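Objective 1b: paired records.
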Amino acid sequence: LLGKADCPYYAKAELLADYLQKNLPDFQIFKIIHHPDLWEEWLKDVCEKNKWSHKNSPIIWRELLDRGGKGLLLGGYNEFLEHAQLYYGVTSSMTTEMMMIIAQENLEAHKEKALKKESTKDLVSPLQVWITSASTPAGCSLIPVLVSGEVFGRRTEMSLTLFDHPSTEGDLRSLAMEMEDLASPLLRSVAICTRAEEAFRQAQVVILLDDSIEQEVHSLEDCLRQRVPLCRLYGQLLEQNAQDTVRVIVWGKTFVNLRTELLKRFAPSVAHNIIAVALGIEGEAKAVLARKLKTAPSCIKNVIIWGNITGNHYVDLRKARVYKQESAIWGPPQYSRPVLNLIFDSEWVKKEFVTTLKTLTATGKHFGGILAAHSIGTTLKYWFHGSPPGEIVSLGVLSEGQFGIPEGIVFSMPVKFENGTWAVLTDLKDTEIGKDMMTRMTSDLIQKGLVKRTCQKTVENKGIDGEQRGFSEDKVQAEGRAKEPGDKEETEVAKGDEKNLSVSEDHQEECRLSNVDRTLGPQSPPQRGEAQNPTPGYSLLQPSD
């Protein structure tokens, strides 16, 4: 008995068949039910296989010996009813109303059964997760977060593959043994990989932690010349080896936006599933605000990070709200108040807040593993299960012209996660960005894009030998540990149209590779060989006084 899940005639035939099976010793029934969207395809296959002609639901046939043998077509519901009446003297008196009710119940039961089957299948086939530069502190801190069940779900098993340079193989083996010692019920297997051609095979989630390069470089162009080939290699491997639905998340301390854009260019078929993590900066800002307001960082929501995640970015407090704040006004857990209404010292917001952020960021460079793990884990959790309703999340995605941002650059902006994907919150009110401010945020990204295209053209036209690239067909570029520069930081207040804009230091690693003049207005592209100057990049976006 084969039919559609929502077919009322299938429901009536099923009830009659159940009655015959219960009352006849040698009468057996086997039911096959399909979703309405799949019904026509299944019916066509059955008819072609048995050389039958049938168009409606249900279709009923007899198999005289064992199930699976030669079948004799009875027909549809009417033919089955006639067969039962002639052979067994039994008929059905089910009303049309009852047929419709049972058909709807059958459809709901079929959907529920399909969902359970899918979840069981996920347990049988573990989620394939890959981590690049897995031997770094960020990778070591991330692993316990992933296997805890908080990210992908407490019923989702995973197979974890640690990918890094061949020189780190000993560290990877030690890390793999330590992971096995966790005895996590969700960790099905752990493997290591040091050969580029084997990377990302059947990957469903790829976490890119690659952040630094082996040799110290002195110009933006030199840095990009070493990064473009590695991003191209990763892009090609994602295209060739990963699953079509792979989700790629990029984290780092330098050039996160640019690396994300390069990966999108070199892996076009999965470009829509490549994102950059911005929650680390968001968390730092919440921590500073929480100290000032004497509350927990988790009680502060909707801080927005705009721009270049590891460069010129802006902290937007216009939508920020604080929950569970002890004051004269108290409300239920869902009650909140605007952060800027609770901080009465505007000078603190404009100056000390930015200065404190600089200090916190500098500290994070030494203890960045924990912050990186939490930021990546939370972003993945939202991606798989959705972000909290009504909460704004910052994420580095490819701009399509939203908020007046130039198209084609990866830019941190407000989004929400829902149903396994993300959407930019273009309907937010009071989030306008001034022209000068937008120029300041996009100038370094656009300049890096120009240099990137120059480097890419050089790589494609002239080629770079294996030693210059740092990888070959069976070797990826070593993920060296960049020196922590000690550039002196300064703080200034931007003047001009944006009077309420506070500016502080750019992330040191990225600043030392760029000689961009950070004054408002158009910028000149950096010239190779020129001296590199520390440049301001932290800024604050808030309503005018």
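Objective 1b, second protein:
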Amino acid sequence: AYHGLEHARKWAELYTRRALEELRKLPSDPPRKILAEVTQRLLNRKY
């Protein structure tokens, strides 16, 4: 449990990377860009 936050962060990074890889399969258009931005923001939020 000591490294719980670090462990959770690594899992979040892994799933974020996977989500972005899946998004790249979609047509390159504004909705895809928005989804990618939201995905990154969720990983990097500070609250």
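The two ends are 21 Å apart (CA to CA). The chain has one domain: 4-44.
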